[in-house]
Structure formats: C-alpha cells, structure tokens
Write a sequence for this structure.
C-alpha cells in the first residue's frame, strides 16, 4: 500500500481531487465547495479555534484577555478567504470589531508557528493543530474567548463512489482514533 497525503490549508485542491477522483476521501472541515451536495460528510469530531502566542509574548502571562485588546497587535494570519482566515474574520466581526491589521499574510502553518516563536506575533489556530502536531512548548494558548461554536471535522467523500478496501480500512481507523480522542476530553 502507498498513501499519498495531500496537506493543504485551502479546500480547492481537496475539492478538485475528490471531483476528479484522484483522491479517495478527505479529512477536513465541511466548508465552501466541500459542503456542496455532490459530497457526503461524516463528522468525526468537533474542533474549536484558539488564539496563540509565544511564551515570550507579553500576553502569555495574562489570565484573561478580551479579543478587543488584541486588535492592534501584530497578527500573522492566512488570507481572509482561506478556512482559518474566514474563522478570524468571523471571530472579530461577531465581537463587533474590525478585522485587525495583519502584519504577515501566509497560509503555511509552519511559517506562522515560526513567526510566533519570535514573541512578536499572534495567530488563530484550530485546537487540533496543537493537539496533533509535535509538542511546541514555546507556544501558548491565550485565554481569549472566541465568539463562535465548534466546527465539525469529518470524512468527505464523493457521493455514489465506492471506496477501495484500503480507503475503507483507513476511514475505520480514523473513526476509532476520533472516538478515543473524544473519550479523553
């Protein structure tokens, strides 16, 4: 067996891959093009978003922080039309705030994490990005309440497509991992 993992912060490659049948399934948020009626979605778990900073940041020592206090800070975020970018836009809008002046716009999470480590920037990440990545003791989740609900992460498949036994086996294991994570909460 050979697995080809397509890691992306945008849904366009996933949508195209599923539509063209070059990928069997996606594990992603059900959003935008991936929410259309030509796809099936099976929720695995709910994810939420957090504001993060370096442990060197002045904000890392605070016990409570309002989102309004952070608007003028230097942010590193993906473009507003990306999944995480749209979450940030909605968080500020729901709080009655203007979108912050973003200092660095970039999609790759690795770039955002590296910039966070300098102690100068803030970003918004899915909680799962911290849970499923290697330990990063230099990054701290800030005590900021983001005003929106959790977002389901699930398996997205093309409707009326029969999956291979290998794809079905992988999906079965993904369900098992999601169940075990839910029990640990």
């Amino acid at each position: 067996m050979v697995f080809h993992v397509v890691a992306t912060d945008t849904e366009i490659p996933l949508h195209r891959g599923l539509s063209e049948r070059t990928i069997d399934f996606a594990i992603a948020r059900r959003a935008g093009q991936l929410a259309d009626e030509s796809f099936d979605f099976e929720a695995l778990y709910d994810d939420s978003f957090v504001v993060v900073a370096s442990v060197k940041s002045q904000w890392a020592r605070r016990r409570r922080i309002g989102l309004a206090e952070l608007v003028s800070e230097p942010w590193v975020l993906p473009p507003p039309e990306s999944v995480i970018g749209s979450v940030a836009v909605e968080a500020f809008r729901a709080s009655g705030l203007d979108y912050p002046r973003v200092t660095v716009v970039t999609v790759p999470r690795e770039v955002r994490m590296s910039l966070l480590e300098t102690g100068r920037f803030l970003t918004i990440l899915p909680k799962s990005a911290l849970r499923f990545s290697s330990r990063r003791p230099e990054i701290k989740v800030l005590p900021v309440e983001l005003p929106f609900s959790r977002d389901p992460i699930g398996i997205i498949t093309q409707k009326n497509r029969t999956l291979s036994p290998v794809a079905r086996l992988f999906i079965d294991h993904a369900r098992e991992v999601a169940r075990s994570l839910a029990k640990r909460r």
The chain is about 30% helix and 25% strand.
